[in-house]
Amino acid sequence: MSITTGLIRKSWWRFRNSGRLLRAQSPFKVFFVSLFALGFEVGLYLLFLDGFRFLDQLGGAGRLILNHLFALFFMGMGAMLVMSGIVTGYSTIFRSDEIPFLLTHPFTVSRIVVYKYYQSTLFASWSFGFVVIPFVAAYGVFLDLGPLFAVWTFLFSIPFLLLCAGIGSIVVLLLVRWSPTGRALKWLCAAIPLVGALLIWSLWQDAYDPDANVQFTLSRIVPGLRPATNKLIPSWWVAAGILALTRGELVRGGMLWLVLTTTTAMLVMVVEWIGSATFVASWRRVLGNMRRGRHAPVLFPFAERLLRGIGADVRAVALKDVRIFFRDPTQWSQTLIFFGLLALYFSNLRNFRYHALPDAWRNTITFLNVFSVSAVVCSLGSRFAYPQLSLEGQGFWVLGLSPVKMSRIVRAKFALAVMALLPISVALMLLSGAMLRADWTVRLLAVGLSACISLAVAGLSIGLGSIFLDLRSRNPAAIVSSFGGTLNLVLSLGFMLLTIVPFGLLFHVRISGLLSPAGMVRSVAVASAWTLTLTAITTIIPLRLGARSLAMRDY
Question: Among residues 24, 65, 96, 229, which one has the fewest Cβ atoms lying within 10 Å of its Cβ?
Fold first, then answer.
């Protein structure tokens, strides 16, 4: 048995033993997560199926898009897998707790790197199945491709996952080994936003204008269609091979699968070679940076002067949380990726010609954008805001015995969560409304909904985090997955639906002609009063209950 096989078997037995932890979880959490996953899959299946029917109704252009949609889908999923491989590859390859143990045993460095690369692939690609399964099911049902279509998709997906994750691992290995430090790193960090702004501006300039006398091409209305159909791109090998095998072209499909598999095998050899040459020096560099980081200078020293107007106790709590957040790349990188992808999507709405759609479609897209931003706000609130008090750990008794009231600490945590969530969500909705050229009433309602959801999520997360305080756990994932964390996520998503759905239904009924303008004004006023009342209740009550729960504890 090879070294890599033995390490993989070890991980498999560890995964099997973790099933005992699942049985120890609360039934409420298991039921809700299972129900949400099933609803997510069914919802995506229905959404994809409805999208295929819509494209088929467009006639010739729609059928041409359907023929190339499979390649476009796999190209997009491949890009997301590469990004996910970069994020998970760093923590899996260089920040894993078992790296020192593996290096002290008779394992070659190249085998350790390959094992960690396989592990990173597994961590990076679990979400791939959640999206591929409903898409493949809807695509196969709509085109009546038969059950073998799913088999061929599974056969091509395995090497494709390894290929995309391998690209991400190579990028991580090279960046960690030769990334700039010091002043060069600061200049690089300053240049990245500038390059991103220039890219967005160039895309804005190239946005499709339906009033301009330009030649209508398929690649103009479907961005990414041209590279997706390039025969040198692995996503095209996957799409063409699956469809060829489905049509019975076994030789062509088999050749494309062999091309994909051999390319993936060569990439694994490249990962092994680069890892054996750079891993030890890179790991020592990461370890050295971690040790030097313990004595790093204070981040944002100017913030002390900017926040001089508030109390010293509240200022200290807020600055501590901000500095901890920015010192952990896994936290700010997740936030940057989530909101960055939304900003990239909103800035390219005109490239998809959404601003040229009728009012009914633009209003629908606006409220869907509110839903997407709010869903990210709910997830980030549960991931970062909820465990804030629990992560104080055993040192929380210092706050409990200090003359600072617990209500002030809770308000400080709440204000910090609001300052983190509110500006970004409001800015994204302003960008969405501007790109869609939506009516100002719809824009203001979208911004107001985002603001209310940000306030409510911050109040729920901090309040429930105070009630279900867990000072024994130092793992944020364990705190978030507890009963209190699950309840917080359920209530946040429920509040989001209770505020967005009424406005979406009102505008749909108004456009359908079933509601008069005067009735629309009264209905919007009632829905606004309902939203404001629900926001006040959801924000204030959890904060008060949380402060009371902390005040009644023994320290």
Answer: 24
